[in-house]
Write the structure tokens for this entry.
Amino acid sequence: MTTNHLKPARLGIGVISAGKVGAVLGAALRAAGHSLVGVHAVSEASQERADVLLPGVPLLEVEQIAERSELLLLAVPDDELAGLIEYLASSGSLTSGQLLVHTSGRHGTDIFAPATTLGAIGLAIH
């Protein structure tokens, strides 16, 4: 009997917010073999964290990250998530079938409505 050994899919992942959650998850996903296409970091602390935990990953604007990603990790504060999703949906940078993942403990998948109407797939992990 032969067995098929499927290789796991390797995704191009973008990280929006190099806070404590985003940077650590990004580093873990990279360690699992995925490529990080970009990270968005605004504060000096986040930029430093990205430099330490995600060396070599380019600091980019959110639109650039979304356009380059198969999976977009949204690790922003709860209060910023809805506005970010609405902005991304209106920016033209999302594609049908693109995976969007948020880490908010306050929100489920309904918050992705502006993006899912475009064909994106929303996932909540918390």
Notes: The first strand starts at residue 12 and ends at 16.
